[in-house]
């Protein structure tokens, strides 16, 4: 696992400074596919599939209109989140929302999350 991370870090450094987001996403998906096999208990980034013990979550804070409390969700890692426009982030939040719908009751509505995402959170 350490070796794989080292190789990916070295390769990523080679690409730094150049705008090669497709290559970087490919590398993250590669490491996601490999590492998720060995970390099946961790959930993953919805885009690159890297598990959360390797990838850094992008936490989106939102206000739960049902409870009046603040909460957060993280369908994307920081890197994938940063590479996407707001419009292109929404489907990943929708996927997470669909997953949540399978285990109600929930303390938030889809609109609560959408407001946060559209606000750049
Ligand atoms: Zn990702």
Secondary structure elements and pairings:
Elements: H1 2-15, H2 21-38, E1 60-63, E2 70-73, H3 78-83, H4 86-101, H5 110-118
Antiparallel strand pairs: 1-2
Zinc ion binds next to helix 3.
Molecular structure report:
The chain is mainly alpha-helical. The protein has one domain. The chain is 52% helix and 7% strand. Strand 1 (60-63) and strand 2 (70-73) form a beta hairpin. The radius of gyration is 16 Å and the shape is globular. The termini are far apart. Bound molecules: zinc ion. Zinc ion (ZN) binds at residues 28, 45, 47-48, 50, 55, 76-77, 79-80.
What would you call the structural class?
mainly alpha
How many domains, as an integer? 1
User: Helix amount, in percent?
Assistant: 40-55%
Q: What series of H and E elements makes up the topology? A: HHEEHHH
Strand order of the largest sheet: 1-2
Compute the gyration radius: what is it? 16 Å
What kind of sheet is the major sheet? 2 strands, antiparallel
End-to-end separation in angstroms reads 32 Å
Bound molecules: zinc ion
